Amino acid sequence: MKNPLLISLLILLGLTMLTAIIANLEAQGTMLAAICIMAIAAAKFLIVAYQFMELKIAHAFWKTTVFFFCILVAGIVGFFSVV
User: Fold this and answer.
1) Could you tell me which of 27, 34, 47, 29 has the C-alpha nearest to residue 77?
2) b vs e for 39-57, b when ≥16 Cβ sit within 10 Å of the residue's Cβ?
3) CA-CA distance, 33 to 43, in Å (whole number)?
4) Domain count of the fold of the chain
5) What count of other Cβ atoms lies within 10 Å of the Cβ of residue 80?
6) Mean pLDDT throughout 40-44?
7) Membrane spanning segments where (predicted)?
8) What is the pLDDT of residues 15-37, one digit of tens each?
9) CA 8, 9, 10, 11 torsion: positive or negative?
10) What pTM does this model have?
11) Which of 37, 35, 32, 3 is nearest to 18 (CA)?
12) Domain boundaries, position 76
């Protein structure tokens, strides 16, 4: 398994299954579940952006901008999903 795209795909599938497990736990609706789900969503977004959209070879400005945008959106959505 030296193909990085296949490894990324398997990681994304595993994170998706983990999100489904967290969503079906009894901790549903709590702030911890929302934070965990949004953190997993942010990780999946960054994997897709850096691996499949080839952001890893982009200019440093775009790398940092996408990273901080991801953190900002995940934080806002995670905060307002609990309120």
Assistant:
1) 34
2) ebbbebbbeebbbeeebee
3) 15
4) 1
5) 9
6) 95
7) 30-53, 60-82
8) 999 999 988 886 666 778 888 88
9) positive
10) 0.84
11) 37
12) 4-82
